[in-house]
Design a protein that fits this description.
This protein is an alpha/beta fold. Helix content is about 30%, strand content about 20%. The structure holds iron/sulfur cluster.
């Protein structure tokens, strides 16, 4: 979007107004692929019966089905993979003179680096796309930097910064490494420069993302890179909430925890997708670990960062998951008592190692296990949310609630943008109408299973 806007395109979120429609796609599980395809077909109707003249498909579905997309959906004029962002201008047919020429190259030079683990796994075929019909063999190697033009689509006080791309882990259910390529980090100075610029423009909350943020910097020899980066970001003027998403369990170091604990503007919040708790399932998932090890690690996180908010996600119905292994997961969830938890149904993906494993669990059984795991978490969540009633927190006001015009809505540092529950605000001091994008002190007055109700004090 940044490149298109810089080249003179007017951006609109309304497909019916657009001359060119770009569908950015996801492809990591079956339901995401289906949603992407449904959206492309829906947008294609704007070409046949509407104003649109070009339809462009971008993103991970292109990495997976490059040739197949144009072959099967003739309305699609061009595809742009995740490693070829510079092609978006030609794909969209944007040829006008730039309005505000950038002093920088759109794709400034970054020499891709790699971790020895990634090179090793590449040798073992971890990133191969041989079994995928219609995919091109080349892996994406793209990384944006602080000179890349961006258009933020988040509320004005909040922004994501991607600090790394790709993943070197061997998880047997996952095709993200084949889609996104080998792990590579953005330059340290580039991340800081972007954060400073965002803070100067009014952004107060930064969420660092990547497929695996906890490997940050390893490819250029930085030890404890994420902790070092967070420390530096904590000193950027204006940033009030800094958090990172998606920690790999065995990459959470003592230094990382101490860094979070030491800075008020680094949120006491860790999202660590564990995927399962049974050691035998985790072994088949090619991840390692198990309930005992995870419980010790959680105990350490809670000890070093008092009051830390923990989020995790699990996959249920992995091939061969027995009743006993599932029960083990349920027992672990009860004991660990996460603040936030997501449960995903196993999705069979061609090209993932688990695709060839026998003893697939029926969809019905998977759904029933997912529901029962979520019902355990619901009780835990309800009790945890109830214990917050009467306490005060800082709240970032996000505006009128999507649930009711009579309520406002916001988040505390315990809530990451978009994924966690909500805080509904139903009262504030008279004459002090709260403004979107500002921070307020609030008191929790009621709790639901996942959401909270608060008054601004
Ligand atoms: S760490 Fe995450 S992105 Fe990487 S292979 Fe495992 S599940 Fe996939």
């Amino acid at each position: 979007m940044g490149m298109l806007a810089q080249a003179g395109a007017d951006l609109t979120p309304n497909a019916e107004d657009a001359d060119v429609i770009v569908v950015n796609t996801c492809s990591f599980i079956g339901s995401a692929q289906q949603e992407s395809i449904d959206t492309i077909l829906e947008m294609a109707r704007h070409k046949s019966g509407g104003k649109a003249k070009r339809l462009v498909v971008a993103g991970c579905l292109v990495e997976r089905f490059h040739d197949e997309i144009r072959k099967n959906i003739p309305e699609v004029d061009a595809v742009v993979g995740t490693g070829e962002l510079e092609k978006i201008l030609a794909a969209a047919g944007v040829t006008e003179t730039p309005r505000a020429p950038s002093p920088f190259n759109i794709l400034s030079s970054t020499t891709p680096t790699s971790r020895p683990e990634g090179d090793h796994r590449r040798g073992q075929g971890r990133f191969a796309r041989d079994s995928w019909d219609g995919a091109v063999a080349d892996l994406p190697n793209y990384l944006y930097d602080d000179h890349t033009p961006r258009v933020l689509t988040t509320p004005r006080s909040s922004a994501y910064i991607k600090i790394a791309e790709g993943c070197d882990h061997p998880c047997s259910f996952c095709i993200i490494p084949q889609l996104r390529g080998q792990f590579r980090s953005r330059r340290f100075e580039s991340v800081i420069a972007e954060a400073e610029r965002l803070a100067q423009s009014g952004v107060r909350e930064i969420t660092l993302i990547g497929q695996d943020t906890t490997c940050y910097g390893e490819d250029f020899g930085l030890k404890d890179g994420l902790a070092v980066l967070l420390e530096k970001l904590a000193g950027v003027e204006g940033l009030q909430w800094i958090r990172f998403l998606y920690a790999y369990p065995n990459k959470i170091t003592g230094r990382l925890l101490e860094t979070i604990a030491a800075h008020d503007n680094i949120c006491s919040y860790i999202d660590v997708p564990l995927q399962h708790a049974s050691a035998t399932v985790l072994k088949r998932m090619k991840r390692g670990g198990g309930a005992d090890l995870f419980l010790r690690s959680i105990e350490k996180m809670r000890r070093v960062i008092p009051g830390v908010t923990l989020r995790t996600s699990f996959i249920v119905g992995f091939p061969g998951e027995t009743e006993k292994e599932f029960e083990e997961l349920c027992g672990f969830v009860k004991e660990a008592a996460f603040d936030w938890m997501g449960a995903f149904s196993y999705s069979d993906q061609e090209g993932a190692r688990a695709f060839d494993q026998e003893k697939k669990i029926s969809l019905r059984e998977i759904e029933s296990r997912r529901k029962s795991l979520m019902s355990i978490q619901k009780k835990i969540s309800r009790a945890k949310k109830k214990s917050l009633v009467g306490r005060e927190f800082n709240l970032l006001l996000e505006g009128t609630s999507t649930e009711s015009d009579l309520l406002l809505e916001g988040r505390t540092s315990m809530h990451a943008p978009e994924i966690d529950g909500k805080v509904f605000v139903n009262d504030y001091p008279e004459g002090n109408e709260p403004k979107e994008g500002e921070f307020y002190r609030c008191r929790i007055t009621a709790a639901h299973d996942y959401d909270l109700v608060a008054e601004i004090v």
